[in-house]
Every structure is written in C-alpha cells, then in structure tokens.
C-alpha cells in the first residue's frame, strides 16, 4: 500500500505509556521504519520502550528523559508524540522547529494559543504536523467518506459524533497508574477529547477545505459517575471517593460551520455505557447512524424504514480498506491504527504534506479549550479561530494518494 519510493524512514517516539508502546510495537513490525531513539520522563517506561526495540531484533535504540535531546539528533526525520494531553503541542512545535515531521496523538488543547503556536511552527519551518487521528482511517468512517464523496447523502446538513466510552476504571485508577487523565478530570470541565469524532466528520464536511467551524457552545452535566465509582471500588478512605471532580459526566457541544452545517459533539466517559463514537451523518438525501448501524437513503431504502448499514459498507468499501483486507488487517483498534501510522510514514518517506495537516490539528484540538471557556461562561457561544487565516476558502488541494482524506481516487488502486 505504498505511495513512495522504497527507503527506510527514521522515527523517534516521545511518550512510552500504554499508547506509546503500542505504537512503537507497530512501527517495529514495519520493515521500512527504524526507531533509533525513544523518550519518556519515567525511567521504567523508557526501559520498557528500549526493551521492545531490542526484542524486535532491531539495532539498539538510544533512550532519552529530555525530549529536546532526542530532537537535537539530525538523523531523525519525524517523531510520534503519544505523551500527555498538556505536553503534545509544546513537543510538536519544538519538533517542527528542529526540522522534523510531528505526529501528536489524539487529545485536545488547554489553550488556543498553543494551537496557534503549532500553526506558526509549521508555516515558518515548512514541516508538517499530523494529529494521529486513527478514527479518520476507521473502516466505517472511510466507507462513509466514499459515500459522501459520491453524493449518496446529498448535501450534508448535520453531523453528530463523540467519545462515549466508560473510562471510570481507567480514570479512577489514574493516581496509582500515573495516568494524566485523572488530573484533567479533577481540574477541567469541557470537551476534553474531541478528535475521534470530529476528525472524520471534519473530513466529510470539508473543514479547512472550503468550509470551517465558526462558533460553538458547550454545556456540561453534573459530575457524579467517578466519585460514585471510586466509593464503590476504591474504598471510602480513597481520596477520589471524596474528590470534587470538575468534569461533568456528559459534555455536549454544538458547533456551527460556515456553510450552515451543525455538528453535535458528545463527551461521555464517566457513566456506565457501551462504547460508541455516536456517529450520525445527515444530508438532503439520507441519514446514517452508528448506534443501530443503520442507514436510510431516499429513493433506495424502503419508505421511512431503516436498513442495515452492512450491505452498504460492502458496496461502498473504501478502496484503501479493500486493499488492506486483501493484504491482512493488522494492529490495534480494528486495523485503523496501522493505517494512520502508514499514512504518516508514507508522507515522511515521500517528503510530502500529511493528509491530516497542521490546520486540522489546530482546529480540532482548539475545540477543547473553547469548550471549557463556553462551559465556564454558562454555555455562551465562543468563536472558533480560523487557523488557516482565510486559506480555507480556496485551499490548494493536498497530494492525492491512497491515504488522502480529501478525495477518493479509485484509479490509484490495482
Ligand atoms: N488514538 C487512540 O486510539 C489513542 C488510544 C489511547 C491513547 N491515545 C492518546 O495517546 C496519548 C498517551 O496516552 P497514554 O494512555 O499512553 O498515556 P500515559 O499517561 O499512560 O502515557 C503518556 C506518557 O507520556 C510521557 N510524557 C509526558 N510528558 C512527557 C515529556 N515532556 N517528555 C517525555 N515523555 C513525556 C509520560 O511520562 C507517560 O509515560 C494521549 O494523548 C492519548 O489521548 C490515543
């Protein structure tokens, strides 16, 4: 599934928690990737990362506690940044200023200024910054992209998306597991994890490519789930059983786009529930909904009746996924982790812009800081900056290849 001349790329990994080690394992399975350097603030996690490189039979990697030392190496072309939410932007901007492709993991920004800093670093250095939003490469999301590009939903009017994942155990054990999420939930109230939902929907709506997000308003429910869970599972003496969590259990955000579309975004991670990204795509010709895996297309579905999405996904399978299934799906999260990594690796290899760029990264991450402001202001609408400074109106299209998210070009696939 390559797009570039065959050669090896040399990447570093900064952040070796659960996610960093999972990404590192996947990189080490790629023959065209070398990982000569890894980094974490914690010595034990650094050692685990180094052990993974050795266990894969790769040349010995160098370990760093200070990411700036890793960035100072001139033999590394790009870095993955699966660190904590509040460290992504600083590291990504420094990486670009050190002449490297930057790939921060999913997460939101704590301030709008840090998003501008990403944009400035990328524009001033010419180095790309690609948020590693794996959900843009999900099988369902890519089939929908294909269907939207073929016009099956007509003109899009409304999308819904979110992160609905019962994380009470993961967040509640955060003090013991040294996990950053707990500190965010204790101190912040807003849409802290927007990109899994918003990434794919932005691609459908052409955000930063002829469209943009204009304003948002956010509302947070009361916070009960985590403290109740802590009381039942960690014991009455545990500090979290008495803690005041700032984060509402359900945070709902409405976004208005320049061409009139609305996006409903939900963050729902501290109450019991099955996993969902809460998807809904609705246009003048039909509607798709994730939770009951259903679709209705006017003129094709029986009158006013839902149909199963399954046969549609088969019919409109994205050609990248068709090829991928043929070669053997691998890696985490149903295979989309591998695809987003390959999209990054192939871009570095070909020395071209990444399919998710710095404007996408900044716009999606900024939703977190803006949502916190809106919640704090009693759901007051807040403006969403135009990180492209007007370029969204007539953007030069990005490179067209198999991993492109702007277009679906079937002719590229055998
Ligand atoms: N795309 C996905 O499906 C997915 C899944 C899980 C996690 N994530 C994202 O991956 C990131 C990491 O998640 P995690 O669960 O592994 O978190 P974690 O807290 O377990 O690990 C983060 C690691 O980053 C290190 N770190 C923080 N600041 C650093 C710095 N300045 N220099 C070097 N190392 C630093 C920490 O020491 C820690 O070991 C988060 O952004 C998370 O949202 C994405």
Major β-sheet profile = 9 strands, mixed
Q: What do we call the CATH topology of the largest domain?
A: Dihydrodipicolinate Reductase, domain 2
* Number of separate domains: 2
Radius of gyration: 21 Å
Number of strands: 14
Indicate the overall shape.
Answer: globular
CATH class of the largest domain: Alpha Beta
CATH architecture of the largest domain: 2-Layer Sandwich
Polypeptide structure, described:
With 414 residues, this protein is α/β, with parallel strands linked by helices. It folds into two domains: 9-134, Rossmann fold, CATH 3.40.50.720; 135-319 and 357-412, 2-Layer Sandwich (Dihydrodipicolinate Reductase, domain 2), CATH 3.30.360. Helix content is 35%, strand content 17%. The chain is built from 14 helices and 14 strands. The strands form two sheets. A nine-stranded mixed β-sheet has the order 13-12-11-10-6-9-8-7-14. A five-stranded parallel β-sheet has the order 3-2-1-4-5, with helices on both faces. The chain is globular. The mean pLDDT is 96. It binds nicotinamide-adenine-dinucleotide. Nicotinamide-adenine-dinucleotide is lined by residues 14-20, 39-42, 45, 67, 82-85, 87, 105-107, 134, 179-180, 333. Residues 14-20, 39-42, 45, 67, 82-85, 87, 105-107, 134, 179-180, 333 line the site of nicotinamide-adenine-dinucleotide.
